[in-house]
Design goal:
3-stranded antiparallel sheet, 49% helix
Amino acid sequence: MSATTPSHPAPVDRAELLADPYSVYARLREAGPVHRITGTDGLPAWLVTRYDDVRQGLADPRLSLDKRNATPGGYHGFALPPALDANLLNMDPPDHTRIRRLVSKAFTPRRVELLREPVRRIAGTLLDALAPLGRADLISAYAAPLPIIVICDLLGVAPGDRQDFRSWTDALVAPDPDRPEQAREAVRSLLGFFTGLLAAKRAAPADDLLSALIAVRDEEDRLTEDELMSLAFLVLVAGYENTVHLIGNATLALLGHPDQLAALRADPGRLGPAVEELARYDGPVPLAVRRFPVEDVTIGGVDVPAGETVLLSLAAAHRDPRRFADPDRLDLGRDAGGHLALGHGIHYCLGAPLARMETEVALSALLDRFPGLALDLPPDGPRRRPSMRSRGLLSLPVRY
């Protein structure tokens, strides 16, 4: 994509942004707090790069997530059918408040803590399978299946459906630019999957989150059918997608910084705070969900008209030296409180306690099992997803 400040052109190469986003964002951040850009869809947007402005923007009620507030002819985004599009990422209060309240009890820190032992058992089983091999791709063999199993168990998705779900999600979130039909096929498959899943749960309710949400829909009439399906879709996708990349990026960062890894091994009790720094250092979401001002606003001293697309760069904010000292350095002793990897304000990640706990358990189990764990990368380095929406690894070869 290409970017400009309001008065000075500053071209940005998409390949460069994918290969080295932090250098690109640093250049933009120091050139100015807000940039007029042309996105990959060819439409204009405003990119916000400095921590204070990004944090304020995440909590600003004037910046709407509802696409109906977009300027006509402006942002159109990826087309989802109504049955998948009526989700929290497209909603403002009061609908956002109503729906979030219905599902939030499943993700409280107390409820999530009850899942710690089951997650630890899942991690142990996956590592048992890896132990005799000596080498593995940690994404496909560990970082991806762990959160899939956890979120599918929580929702009540049968084991046989998990692999298909992963391939559909990958095609939707990071479509192959040479095969645009993949994303459309994934949407059709996901719609059919959730239609069948809801029907099966209605016929035979179980002790799972999806059955509970169906009861809210059918018995209490507090969800429309589209809202129910969209909520199931969002919980399943978000519960898997971001956690995979958080675990993968964190593992790569640790193995690439032997001094920090050694300090963590010497004091495993630091792992909880370390996860916060790892999320700041190389989080799974470079850009927050797009927003649309419901009135003219001023961000970082720049006037942004109502209805135009605003992109809040979490990746740029996390490396802002105005907020984090020496921000390009991984420092597990740092107080990374205030990072925005899981959002801020009313749209703060619903599954944040679960993502934190899963990452902590995954890293702890991995490091305990394989004291000699080391990267086994090809000469050209790790392979990353070619995606602007998520920062994740396609593979992470290791030896142990």
